[in-house]
């Protein structure tokens, strides 16, 4: 057997071994909880700012007489 054939057989064996491991994810690495990346206070503040600014814009547009 030539050297290149031996290397090719070794690569094929390594690849085949890897294929049999696919999908075998340990249970500990899978996230179970639904944690939000931001806290409830930051989320509430963001909602307050967005809704408040939109209401302020609506009131300002209504008092100035429409789109002009």
From TrEMBL:
Coiled coil spans: none
PANTHER family attached to this UniProt entry: GEO09675P1, STRESS ASSOCIATED ENDOPLASMIC RETICULUM PROTEIN SERP1/RAMP4
Membrane topology type, per the record? Single-pass membrane protein
Localisation per UniProt entry:
Endoplasmic reticulum membrane
Protein family per UniProt = Belongs to the RAMP4 family.
List the Pfam families hit by this protein, alphabetically. Answer: RAMP4
Which keywords annotate this record? Endoplasmic reticulum, Membrane, Transmembrane, Transmembrane helix
Task: Please give the start and end residues of each transmembrane region.
Answer: 38-59
Descriptive protein name? Stress-associated endoplasmic reticulum protein 2-like
Q: Looking at the record's lineage, which domain of life comes first?
A: Eukaryota
Q: Which lineage do the record's taxonomy fields give for this organism? A: Eukaryota, Viridiplantae, Streptophyta, Embryophyta, Tracheophyta
Q: Which GO terms describe its cellular component?
A: endoplasmic reticulum membrane
Q: Which InterPro entries match?
A: ER_stress-assoc (IPR010580)
